[in-house]
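User: I'm putting together a teaching handout on how sequence relates to shape, and I'd like one worked example. Could you take Protein-lysine N-methyltransferase Dvir_GJ21427 from Drosophila virilis, show the sequence you're using, and then write out its predicted structure as tokens right after it?

Assistant: Happy to. First the sequence, then the structure tokens directly below it.
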Amino acid sequence: MELEGSELGTKEYWETSYTREIKNYKSHGDVGEIWFDEDSQQRIVDWLLKQETLNKQTARVLDLGCGNGMFLIALANEGFTQLTGVDYSPKAIELAKGIAKDQALNISYDVADLTQNVCPTLGTYAIVHDKGTYDAVSLCPDNPKEQRTNYLATVAQLLHDKNSLFVITSCNWTEDELLQSFEHLFVKYCTIPTPTFKFGGKVGNVVTSVVFKKK
């Protein structure tokens, strides 16, 4: 199955969006939209905090498609110190750097296209986080299947070892669809419960959050 291409899958859309958000931030201090919602973000933060084997001082965390960087800011406020965010939108990185600086937080941000081989410059991580970025890649109007394949290969290389975790939240793909698409590279570690809805006698999820380890 392929999703229909959308402007949400183009770099131009995000550059325009974050250019506007930079202006709003400078004018009003508004950090902009948190992708999906704050609940989805906090759900992941809370789950990470419950992982007893995770050392907040040493665990390297990478946020893929970090946008305004608010997920990493939430982790920094919980005591995580090894934080990096990447986005293919230079304007997103500009906004994220500005917010982190204003909050006196030491978070690294870099421009990186995750459908390209960026691993040698980024290194490896204990936690790799994706909230909506795989969705955006899937909406690319040009060669979405190839882009997703490249993206997942990059994610696998960014995980430090088989104990490293790939935490993904999606609003476009069900858990079963993610499992099928990821099975060549990843195995499911656990599901993070998300709100459900009932329609036509069937129960579904507004968003799906799954944690994977690499094979």
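A couple of points you could highlight for students: The longest strand covers residues 186-192. Residues 7-214 form a domain with the Rossmann fold fold (CATH 3.40.50.150).
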